[in-house]
Amino acid sequence: MSSESASKLVSDLTNSAKIQNMILYFSSNQIYDDNLKDLSSHLHKFTNLETLALEFSVNSIGAEGAIGFSSAIRQCNQLRFLELYLWYIDIYFFVY
Question: InterPro entries in the record, alphabetically (predicted)?
Answer without folding.
Answer: LRR_dom_sf
